[in-house]
Amino acid sequence: MVVKRKMTRKFLEDAFAGESMAHMRYLIFAEQAEREGFPKIAKLFRAIAYAEFVHAKNHFIALGNLGKTPENLQAGIDGETYEVEEMYPVFKNAAEFQGEKEAVRTTRYALEAEKIHAELYAKAKEKADDGEDIEIGKVYICPVCGYTAVDDVPDYCPICGTPKDRFVVFE
Questions:
Q1: Domain range for residue 41?
Q2: How wide is the angle at C-alpha 127 spanned by C-alphas 123 and 132, nearest 5°?
Q3: HSE-CB of 169 using CA atoms within 13 angstroms
Q4: DSSP labels, 25-67
Q5: Are the C-beta atoms of 59 and 16 separated by less than 8 Å?
Q6: Alpha-carbon distances, residue 19 vs 2, 42, 59, 95 (angstroms)
């Protein structure tokens, strides 16, 4: 059953956002703990990050936001397109205006990578609309900027210059 009352929806949307951010924050904390030589603390962060994911997923479903795959792909396309056309250009411009070099860098990285994500989702949606899965091999993600390549990876990331041997591979 989908939550319909306005106040409850707002609270659940806020809870979804908070749980989502906690999930990501704890995964980032886990990476840092691992780098600093605390593998068990890293494990604890990852475990609790998963619990936060469960909370966020439950809220997301209660809000009625989970559809069939073609609908979910369209939501992905819409989200990535918004980020490319509206959100990141404005954020990047504000960062440039305020001289925030790190924010300029991270918003530029995200903007360029999101363009690729929107294209990949659009191709996948075409197939899903026909009831077919996509033909896709390995997916390579740059760990610095999020650049995404399918099947083949360039020697260096075209967005940030990271060497291909550092890319994370999804098989």
A1: 6-62
A2: 150
A3: 9
A4: HHHHHHHHHHHTT-HHHHHHHHHHHHHHHHHHHHHHHHTT---
A5: yes
A6: 19, 19, 9, 27
Are 82 and 114 contacting, i.e. CB atoms less than 8 angstroms apart?
Answer: no
Which tens digits make up the pLDDT trace of 60-83? 999 999 999 999 999 999 999 999
C-alpha 93, offset from chain centre? 22
Domain end among 26, 45, 62: 62
Number of independent structural domains in the chain? 2
Domain boundary among 62, 78, 107: 62
Give residue-wise pLDDT tens across range 11-50. Answer: 999 999 999 999 999 999 999 999 999 999 999 999 999 9
Read off the pLDDT of residues 76-106 as tens digits, 9 standing for 90 and up: 999 999 999 999 999 999 999 999 999 999 9
User: Which pair of structure tokens corresponds to residue 144?
Assistant: 């610095």
pTM of the model: 0.90
Dist. CA 106–CA 95, nearest whole Å: 10
Judged against a pLDDT cut of 90, whether residue 170 lies above it is answered with yes
Would you state the torsion angle of the CA atoms of residues 83, 142, 147, 71, taken in this order, to the nearest 10 degrees? -60
Tokens of 45: 């962060």
